[in-house]
Amino acid sequence: MKTFVENTSIVKKIWSTTDITLFIFAGASAEFALNKQVDWLYFTGKLPGDPIGRLFSTVKYAQYILFKEEKEAIASIEKINAVHQHVESARGFNITNEGYQDVLYMLIYYSIASFELLQRKLTSEEKDDVVSTFTRIGHHMHIRNMPSDYGEWEKTYKRQLTLNLSNSSFTRDLFQQYKKHLGAVRYFLLLDIQRMLVSKQVNHLLELGRPQLVQLLIPAYRLIRKYSWHKQLILMMVPRKFKEQVKAMDRPI
Questions:
Q1: What are residue 165's DSSP bridge partners?
Q2: Is 165 strand, coil or helix?
Q3: Distance between CA atoms of residues 11 and 111, nearest Å
Q4: What is the pTM of this model?
Q5: Hey, CA dihedral for 222, 227, 230, 231, is it positive or negative?
Q6: What is the Cα–Cα distance from 50 to 52, expressed in whole angstroms?
Q7: In 3-state terms, what secondary structure has residue 13?
Q8: CB-based contact 209:195 (threshold 8 Å)
Q9: Fewest Cβ atoms nearer than 10 Å: which of 19, 46, 197, 225?
Q10: Is the model's pLDDT at 195 over the cut of 80?
Q11: Average pLDDT of 57-74?
Q12: 151-194 pLDDT tens trace
């Protein structure tokens, strides 16, 4: 049975690991808040109403696509397409091609950055593998002009970081929602993780500043990860009502 992503792919290694996946979305939550098309999720009301629940919903869809048999994965992508078309119809105009690109590009960036922060540097071939996997998803979502390799993605991503991000009222409101739903301690950790992961452009726009506590803890955290002693720490990083969803994120390859 052919799966959408080969078992040997580094993408499965990245997305089968709970803490790396959480770091991906911690970083992406910063960049996404700056995207000029974030108003689309304000139109549905789902993101500001329940940003943490929305995160876990997105993780569930992403892991389903990456780990399922090819036909099931493509069918799931088609359902996502149908949801987007329904929202576009309700609002009266379409999400731009660049808007769709931006989301996949940030998932590429934070997949690589999170894995390298918590585990090791990726090879050039592994980076190409990450890009080609998300490019395949993009093709099934009918997104045009997706990159063929890491070098092409990197050039486009840098350009779109400059053109497609701004600190708006949506940005500020979304960060207020993060704080409200996470509480002060978890919100501090979120910001500190973001400081370590985001690009200079994102950090500048959000005025995040330099990393503080998490940077000091990462060497010790990498050590305890080797012995799987970190799993309780992961559960402490999320609100109680999401703990079962966190446990379900670990996937054997």
A1: 35
A2: strand
A3: 8
A4: 0.92
A5: positive
A6: 6
A7: helix
A8: yes
A9: 46
A10: yes
A11: 89
A12: 999 999 999 999 999 999 999 999 999 999 899 999 999 999 99
